[in-house]
């Protein structure tokens, strides 16, 4: 066989010890810790991606995703990548070159939507608000009137700012202006109320590693009828083969045509994560997230720490806590990680140095985690303040 | 909180039983079964994607990927998607609109390269051979001379045909013609000799679920200096945000800048899979793949089953076995799955109905698996013949 003449070069053959990761409590902007039952599912024996048993699992996960999103959309699948892959899939499939795309930019992920849309030839327009604020329906209406976009993109739960975008009335406005509504539910799905169909959302995506409490590696995507019509009537092929939903949809649809090899074990994990939500019930899960977030906010106030976002628009799954004057925000993160194996994150972009980002997502939204974090933060402030 | 006025719709809240997957022996074109140690690593407690402990793991995996590819390429990373995502990353980053891209098309995955390259605006030219044959250096030279491509794409191990492309001399030809050489090593990496640097390959990618014996969900990618120069001198942004290696490279490089959340647990699994190869040694691993493939080929001959590919060009990791006249190829696959939990695959495209595709990849390349498969095939032929 070819290659027999060559010597194998061992210079990169490093010998590494057995994998040994610390037990971190992940209370940052994601990933969150997976539920123990998700871990069990993740390690189950693989089957093939066209195995009849795997196809059965695909149907179950699709149905459960419809439940957590509160949608009847037939096209509801986990994309084989992380959240940003599904964000990109949403735009790649539903935007054609020259389309006006209006993006609500009030944080880091709105910026990302603009960058991605521009790569697919969109004429990107920005509706801007300071980081931490949200858009009201009047502002949206003016934006639609001014720009007449083919698509409006909003971030439901801005992981960079901790703000929750109210959705009442926006979907109807978009229909009046014959505009597709895209909603990023990465940090809301499974943690705070999402009613896609009632809100007339046409396109949404999320990620497994936030309020679904599953490891990162899959990203749910759902397309309503108006989005599918746009996809089916494209003049040009989707400029992205891996994320071309006209092809991927045939694997997840009736045809079961091979497109790419689905991440089998990650799909086991996602099914179990969704199953846990179906058992708990969305209503109880949302209430739990709210109650634990309020416990956090009160505890922070007792420590003299405020929140960046007004209470009305504050996201229960991700809190941006204001760093007190004179405190080294990154120093506190490092202290918590090194001393207590707790991960929280520093601010991003405009909020760098100004806030900490504290996530209470899915399985991690538990009173004992709030208590521990508050006690640990108290120690950190005494040490790093 | 918004949504409190709505009732939760329970119509998609299906109650599903505990996940229970059969113990399949995966001897098709992939996925192959993971090694038990990989399974253990997969389930380990998550840490954050910017955790210092995860960054240490990233460095180890990159170094071990260099070993299995036999390359010194600094840019060597696992892409956060399956094999096709890395194929697309290779093209999206190294092809600019208008570039002439010459693809060796002698199977299904050469066709895929053509489709993907065209979506990035390439002027695609095809060098064709019947499915199951390979290209010799003279044919490549004529192709380079005729088309003067910016990039030549070849499939090292064609999973659809079972042919192994000889590489001696091709890289030097590409340098003479100032052409980048892209080599798909999806079904060869970790199973048959690959010497990227000796072969002067500029761009290569693979997948975790073949000879690396890790679940699907990550896809190694490596870019040499000439490929990086092409990327760094692009006139336009990469038309794909998720796979833009000028951004992803900053997360895997010195900067550690957040791009997307890496699939943490899949990266645990990949590290362990690579560690197993480093322990075994490439040479022994390749020899094992050859020995077990030869045992399979001899056993098939004893059953009156020939191979589609001439022995000289036959791939040890994936055999295309000729379906005897009058035998229902899909019926045999179903029989093996239903009766013995063994997965092999039917032919794809031009070879549909004509061959079975039998994989002996990584951990699954074991004498006991060959013995079992041959015994099971004998039973299947008696029943389905």
Task: Fill in the keyword field for this structure.
homodimer; Aspartate Aminotransferase, domain 1; 385 residues; 14% strand
Question: How would you describe what is shown here?
Answer:
2 copies of one chain form a homodimer. Chain A has 385 residues and is α/β, with parallel strands linked by helices. Chain A is built from 12 helices and 14 strands. Chain A is globular, with a radius of gyration of 22 Å. The longest helix of chain A is centred in the last third of the chain and has 21 residues, at 282-302. The interface between A and B is large, with 105 and 105 residues.
Radius of gyration of chain A: 22 Å
Distance between the termini of chain A: 65 Å
Which segments of chain A are poorly predicted (pLDDT under 50) over 5 or more consecutive residues? Answer: none
The structure class of chain A reads: alpha/beta
Q: What's the average pLDDT of chain A? A: 97
Which H/E pattern describes the elements of chain A? EHHEHEHEHEEEHEEEHHHHEHEEEH
Q: What kind of sheet is the major sheet of chain A? A: 7 strands, mixed
Judging by the overall fold, what is the CATH architecture of the largest domain in chain A?
A: 3-Layer(aba) Sandwich
| Helical content of chain A (DSSP H or I, runs of 4+) | 25-40%
| Global outline of chain A | globular
The most extensive interface between chains reads:
A-B, 105 and 105 residues
Widest β-sheet, arrangement of strands of chain A: 2-10-9-8-5-3-4
Oligomerization status of the protein chains: homodimer
CATH fold assignment of the largest domain in chain A: Aspartate Aminotransferase, domain 2
The number of helical segments of chain A is 12
Q: How many β-strand runs of chain A? A: 14
The CATH fourth-level homologous superfamily of the largest domain in chain A: Type I PLP-dependent aspartate aminotransferase-like (Major domain)
Proportion of residues in extended strands of chain A: 5-15%
Number of domains of chain A: 2
Name of the CATH class of the largest domain in chain A: Alpha Beta
